[in-house]
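Bench notes, afternoon.
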Amino acid sequence: MRQPLFLNQGMREYPELEKLKAYQKAHAIKIRILGERDDLLYVNFESNKGSWEIYIQDEGGDFDESNQILCLYLVLKSLEDYKDETDFLAWSNFYGLDDFDDFWLDYYRSLDKKVYEIEFHFGKIDPFINSFDYELRAGAYQELTRKKRL
């Protein structure tokens, strides 16, 4: 039987968190909040390859600039959500946005170029953490949201 890996403090080690940390470090990623609209956070996603302003979802109110790994996960998860939704109507419904709001339609259209540029520089978008962990606030995501700096 395989034994779980433990850190010195007795917490479980998650390889996906180590990958997320390495990704953040390799690309010198910094995320800061710029504002909010319709329950989505407006953030600046800056790296050694460029800077993009995007809206992200933070259902649990976890976004904390002092936890850049968590912020990076939320950004990557929102970009993955965009790629997973088939069209504007599906995307706007996923986020509970007014699909008659021209602002969101224009923003959705602008995401195609942003996602293309991000993937060009960093490869396929991968938030590293299983979406079930995020939805259930368990496993690696639970570890990520602990009130400590990663």
